[in-house]
Amino acid sequence: MNTVTTPARAGSAAAAGPGSAPAASPAALSCPPAGLPAATAPAATTPAGLVGNTPLLWVGEPFADPGRGFWAKLEGANPGGIKDRTALHMVRAARGRGELAPGARIVESTSGTLGLGLALAGVTYGHPVTVVTDPGLEPMMGGLLAAHGAEVHVVERPHPVGGWQRARRDRVAELVAAHPGSWCPDQYNNPDNAAAYRTLAYELVAQLGRIDALVVSVGTGGHSAGVGSVLRGFFPALKVVGVDTTGSTIFGQPAAPRLMRGLGSSIHPRNVAYDLFDEVHWVAADEAVWAARRLARCHYATGGWSVGAVALTARWLAATLPAEARIAAVFPDGPQRYASTVFSDPYCREHGLLRSAPPHRPQVIAHPGERTVTSWTRCAAVADPLAGPAAGAGRTGGGAPDAPTGTAAGAGAPRTGVRR
Ligand SMILES: Cc1ncc(COP(=O)(O)O)c(C=O)c1O
């Protein structure tokens, strides 16, 4: 069982991970010569083979209450992060369908993690990669993307209505039009994004045997949809808790400027599987910072905005459910890229993020339109804000710079998987 209860990393057999390139695909990388002795440690013939089979770490005291805790799935153990899984899968599927021709350019909007995955897919399958991002990208992340061969475009100003995300997606559409034959994965609406995470769910089942609750962050909705739907099939009573950031529109709150990257959105991605969620938690940036920093000091394994927000929520869930409940929480990446934000005292001071511990339990609202939330809050009424007038009724606030008010999901964006 690939689980650990202390930070010492357990060995994992990674060679058969979901990223293993199929032999029939013309990969850009060559294989080692035949006849070498079999490796005894985790080994792979391509970097894509190192994706998946990530470890689990028990997070109990002192982060959690005495006798309570949860299992953290450490997706930061992938070469780039959780999005290695979906980048490889979306590219493989598009190549299989003939939407992405050998050697054609991949162009995508990303806040960073998918960019690293696409760079990995580009190296693996031999595609040039262009990523479009915004000035919030950490300098280190920009450097890493370029080092791994990606061309990085940074949009200079937000779209007046659709915010940074709309501005990025508009630039993607321009770049796709300018490069005949190029292909945009459209992670926000491409069903292959969610399907890519089935392997993560199977790993959790093999590692934990029984799972009573799943805590997942939501950005494009990909990993929550993929992992949650498979686990619900195994465990029909599974409780699925979604974690978003304050100021995000995904679950029906009005848009507001957001510091947190990865989770949250200013559009309504169609990959979000609203039916799966029993409840959603909105977490504020200072609360996520507190949790990520405390995790680092107490348990060594940590990450950034989404890891902090997920951990805070999972800790509360562990204190709330019966002690024997088995809770899995997905940590999408590790801490490295957050050295200049979450783990930087000057940055956190400048943004008012250094505070004492957040409350032990969230506030509660009955439905997303009840009020605009600005700190950790939960809501058990989860619905697609675009599904009907009732879903967003009674909303307050809005009008923030990143607000997509009146913007349909995906408006102005390239169509899923369409090669131009
Ligand atoms: C660090 C991080 N956490 C969480 C998420 C949200 O994952 P998803 O897009 O699968 O909803 C992302 C997405 O980019 C991410 O990069």
From TrEMBL:
Keywords: Pyridoxal phosphate, Signal
Limits of the Tryptophan synthase beta chain-like PALP domain: 50-333
Keyword Hydrolase in record: no
Cofactor(s), names only, from the UniProt record: pyridoxal 5'-phosphate
Domain of life assignment: Bacteria
CDD domains to which the protein is assigned, alphabetical: CBS_like
Signal peptide residue numbers: 1-23
SUPFAM superfamilies assigned: Tryptophan synthase beta subunit-like PLP-dependent enzymes (SSF53686)
Region (Disordered): 1-29, 388-420
One of the GO biological process terms: alpha-amino acid metabolic process
Extent of Low complexity compositional bias: 7-29, 401-420
PANTHER family reported for this sequence: CYSTATHIONINE BETA-SYNTHASE (PTHR10314)
The protein's name in its UniProt record: PLP-dependent cysteine synthase family protein
Species the sequence originates in: Streptomyces subrutilus
Gene name of this polypeptide: cysK2
